[in-house]
Amino acid sequence: MTTSDDATLRLLHERYAQPLWRYVFSLTRDSYQSEDIVQETLLKAWNSPRILDEPVEEVRGWMFTVARNLVIDQSRSARSRHERSIERLPEEASADHADQIFDEILIHDALAALSEPHRQVVVLAYYGACSTQQIAAELGIADGTVKSRLHYGMRALKLALQERGVTR
Fold first, then answer.
1. Would you kindly state where each structural domain of the chain is located, as residue ranges?
2. Which run of H or of E encompasses 103?
3. Is 0.85 topped by the overall pTM?
4. pLDDT below 70 — which residues of the chain?
5. Rounded CA gap, 50 and 119, in Å?
6. Does 3-82 carry CATH code 1.10.1740?
7. How confident is the model at residue 132, as a pLDDT?
8. Per-residue pLDDT at 59
9. Is 123 in contact with 111 (CB distance < 8 Å)?
10. Per-residue confidence (pLDDT) for residue 62, from 0 to 100
11. Which of 4, 12, 87, 91 is most buried (CB neighbours < 10 A)?
């Protein structure tokens, strides 16, 4: 771009950018779209070599006509008919929790296969994060009994999970 090109573009912008933007904004009510259309209008004027040789009022009228036609063209385009702006973004995609849900169902089903005393101890130990002493105090049984039930309950749980297709 030469110095005269810079001066021409600067002159066009100084004279017409603000009035064009206000006019286009009154048509579109969209500041981003208005800026794009004004920029395109100024570029068309800059690419028209004899535009600055015309009287100022004719140039102004020509630029407003070009801007209006660009607004019309843009509103008729397929993009504007299919795109809709929204105020708020849709919620973000979340991870699929289906595997976690199936695992929970499988464990719940396997726990249901245990005897009540074994299930109580396993649930308190692993889901309640209780120590063997806390479990013994809560259930009113000896600490050794809790350890025994926990051991045999875990073996039964492992077997129940293997019967349901969980291997390991």
1. 3-82, 98-163
2. helix 98-112
3. no
4. 1-6, 49, 51-52, 78-86, 168
5. 91
6. yes
7. 94
8. 79
9. yes
10. 87
11. 12
User: How is residue 7 written in tokens?
Assistant: 């001066």
| CA–CA gap between residue 25 and residue 32 (Å, rounded) | 9
What is residue 78's predicted lDDT score, i.e. its pLDDT?
Answer: 57
3-82 and 98-163 share one fold: no
Phi-psi group of 121: left, alpha or beta (phi > 0 → left; psi -120 to 50 → alpha; rest → beta): alpha
Q: For residues 42 and 17, is the Cβ–Cβ distance under 8 A?
A: yes
The rounded distance, in Å, linking the Cα atoms of 89 and 67 is 30
The residue with tokens 């933007």 is 21
Please list, in sequence order, all residues whose beta carbon lies within 8 angstroms of the beta carbon of residue 72, skipping any fewer than 6 positions away.
Answer: none
CB atoms within 10 A of CB 136: 18
Q: What is the 3 state secondary structure string of 150-168? A: HHHHHHHHHHHHHHCCCCC
Determine the pLDDT at residue 60. Answer: 83
Decide: 46 and 9 in contact? Cβ < 8 Å.
yes
Q: In CATH, which of 3.40.50.80, 1.20.1250.20, 1.10.10.10, 3.40.50.300 is domain 98-163? A: 1.10.10.10
